[in-house]
Design a protein that fits this description.
Elements (H helix, E strand, L loop, with lengths): L2 H20 L5 H23 L5 H17 L2 H19 L8 H16 L2 H13 L3 H28 L4 H28 L5 H22 L7 H4 L2 H16 L4
Helix pairs in contact: 1-7, 1-8, 2-7, 2-9, 3-9, 3-11, 4-5, 5-8, 6-7, 6-8, 6-9, 9-11
């Protein structure tokens, strides 16, 4: 039972409802302060995951090689293209009104889709739950996503109040965004079940460490200190398994 996935989707949907219905009363200072808190919370989750790693050299290799693969394949751009395709699908049902800038509307939609459907933390948390049943990462992410969705709903709600768009449109947008998230995370969950029997405890710890590094990078992006290419870094969660195995089975006996 993918508890973490269900929790995450419900958190986003409910957070969007709260933000759309009452978020306009939130001050800009509160929104910015919460956003900074999201960043430090993501970093704390990352440090917690990194701490028990077993093969530091293998983890560093995986981070460099995986990010290199992502950059060479332009994974970040591909994810954005996928988000834009989702946005176009959603726009068939919901379009920006005449007095709302279409490009700004589309950019906002793409940003939200990438944030909730293709974040490194979500992918890492889903793979972790699929491999060992530990939903801690996704549940922790759900807490962050709930409040992020509240802020998103509040910001969009403010625009709604200015251009008189019925708030039900906001809720429909959030619902349509949640659908692809369920599909993506469920597929990852099932794949992880197939991977786990081929792993060792040390490989799992190294995998968690790489996911932790991705969460730290995401934290820096959230607080806008450094815009790490987190989407392009996702392949490091794939290459860490064979690199960790090779390091323990081949390199370590030679040292």
């Amino acid at each position: 039972m993918p508890v973490g996935i269900i929790t995450n989707v419900c958190a986003i949907f409910l957070g969007g409802i709260v933000g759309a219905l009452g978020g306009q009363k939130m001050s800009t200072e509160l929104k910015e302060g919460l956003n900074m808190t999201f960043g430090i919370a993501s970093m704390a989750m990352g440090v917690y995951a990194i701490a028990p790693l077993k093969n530091l050299a293998a983890v560093i290799f995986a981070v460099i090689i995986g990010t290199g693969i992502g950059l060479l394949c332009h994974l970040g751009k591909l994810i954005n293209r996928g988000a834009m395709a989702m946005q176009r699908l959603i726009s068939r049902f919901i379009s920006a009104p005449d007095n709302f800038e279409q490009q700004a509307f589309e950019r906002t939609m793409v940003t939200v889709i990438v944030l909730f459907c293709a974040s490194g933390t979500g992918i890492y948390g889903t793979l972790t739950e699929g491999m060992n049943g530990d939903a801690t990462i996704l549940i922790s992410k759900s807490i962050l996503d709930f409040f992020a969705a509240v802020i998103f709903g509040a910001n969009l709600g403010l625009v709604v109040s200015l251009i008189a768009i019925p708030q039900v449109i906001i809720l429909t947008i959030l619902f349509l965004i949640a659908i692809p998230q369920v599909i993506i995370l469920t597929i990852l969950f099932l794949i992880a079940h197939l991977i786990f029997p081929l792993t060792t405890p040390n490989m799992i710890l190294d995998f968690k460490a790489v996911g932790g590094i991705l969460m730290v990078a995401s934290g820096f992006r959230i607080i806008k200190v450094k815009m790490f290419p987190t989407a392009d870094m996702i392949p490091m969660m794939i290459v860490i398994m064979p690199i960790s195995w090779f390091w323990m089975q081949v390199v370590m006996p030679l040292l």
